[in-house]
Amino acid sequence: MTQEVRAVIARAEGAPVETVTIAVPDPGPGEVVVDVRACGVCHTDLHYRQGGISDDFPFLLGHEAAGVVESVGEGVTDVAPGDFVVLNWRAVCGRCRSCLRGRPWYCFSTHNATQKMRLPDGTELTPALGIGAFAEKTLVAAGQCTKVDPDASPAAAGLLGCGVMAGIGAAVNTGQVGRGDSVAVIGCGGVGAAAVAGSSLAGAAKIIAVDIDDRKLATARKLGATHTVNAKEVDPVEAIREMTGGFGADVVIEAVGRPETYRQAFYARDLAGTVVLVGVATPEMTLELPLLDVFGRGGSLKSSWYGDCLPSRDFPMLIDLYRQGRLDLDAFVTETIALDEVEKAFERMRDGDVLRSVVVF
Ligand code: APR
Ligand code: ZN
Ligand code: ZN
To answer: 71, 113, 128, 356: which has the fewest Cβ within 10 Å?
Structure first.
């Protein structure tokens, strides 16, 4: 048995996305069909459509989603029909070397649904990050579903599935921001703004938001930034040093993904500070640093992969904080849109007009 639903696909490299009908099979062993309630528009969806991530067109886009479990396949016990779930793109195995060493966020044996969703003519679709949630319903592995408080708004909850978790996790999990720390976040788009919110949750005393767009700095203030720096107007490294008594910040989070901003992050940290790279670089980007500058400082340089999150641990906790009014997930939702407005949302994203556009069903 399959059912037909509406969905957004990228058929060929660079072509605008299309809203089409797709066939979703009943869940097989270990699989779940989710009735999608909301799915955010992320840069990665645009990267799939533009080419560069993979050549396996057509893609079924969308991967920042929350929904309600419709049906479950054989052997699925962690979730049941009717559960409200946030989807994740790293269903961990629990058995590989990383999982067994207590670092499941580095699992190298993550998995997705085995069956394929298809176009009506039988063409297999490749779901973005193994999710594909710009669709009324989607098929995922049970491990990609985390049950959370059903009273949370789906638009806000779905954002935890990717960019917002990456940012919060970069601060809390990777950067280990602690009470009283000074933190600087370079780049305050969706990911950086979430790093600001995460630093605030962790009790940082000083949170310096850096961006080149005053609109982003205003949002960062709403989420807990105590200081803002427009990097178009002043040298951000000097500004951060000045704001931290000449020392630099205890934790500097780079959320742009460029060599210049990574260099700034490196020099804006305290001698014993931590630099966290969460911005995604492209393969040709390199950075040269004087070794003596690396040697002359303690601390650490880290990268954050999906916020080093463990969905089953982090999603329910963050939804609880949201429900208690301690984490403003709604601030990330700039607009809610219909399924056939994804292409328009890509344009607004490119113009820097939105933190997140979210498709609601
Ligand atoms: N200095 C400071 N901020 C900058 C600079 C700069 N030189 N250049 C760009 N920015 C700001 C932009 O104004 C924007 O607010 O960085 C922000 C980038 O945010 P988005 O484009 O919204 O991207 P986001 O979704 O936040 O992701 C940021 O993290 O996960 C990765 O792939 C993602 O590399 C991307 C990064
Ligand atoms: Zn594993
Ligand atoms: Zn994403």
So the answer is: 71
